[in-house]
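Thread: Newbie trying to understand structure tokens

Hi all, I'm a second-year student working on a class project, and my supervisor (Dr. K.) asked me to get a predicted structure for one chain before our next meeting. I've only ever worked with sequences, so writing a 3D structure as a token string is new to me. If someone could post the tokens and maybe explain what I'm looking at, I'd be very grateful. Here's the chain:
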Amino acid sequence: MSDSQPGTRLRETPSSVQDLPEEPSGWLDLPDVAERLDVPITKVHQMIRDGALIAVRREGVLRIPAELVAGRNVLKHLPGVLTLLHDAGYNDAEALRWLYTPDTSLPGTPAVALSGDRATEVKRRAQALGF
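---
Reply by user tm_fold:
Sure, no problem. This is what the structure looks like when written as tokens:
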């Protein structure tokens, strides 16, 4: 399957992820995420496999956008939004692109809005993609 086919769950960084419409505020590698969440790194790997977190390879290392991990928690609505996007046929690269595409009706991007009072609206929009 190619990177552009919906439903392809690749961990490699296709060009569509390297050229996101808006870059995350930073990238965390998996040991940093494990430290932030105060969990073993194996738990972070499990969260990625379960779709509760999204990670892509950047410079040969699996990384997670920093703003998706708030303090000692993954953003509350992130796992639900990722599930909705995957159910709509988005692969990880496409889901990341959607999360980092600026939207004038939100404060910045859906990823940024997930950490604020617009999280429910982001979930609603992700759900609508499946129809």
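A couple of things are worth pointing out once you decode it. The longest strand covers residues 61-65. The radius of gyration is 14 Å. Feel free to ask follow-ups in this thread.
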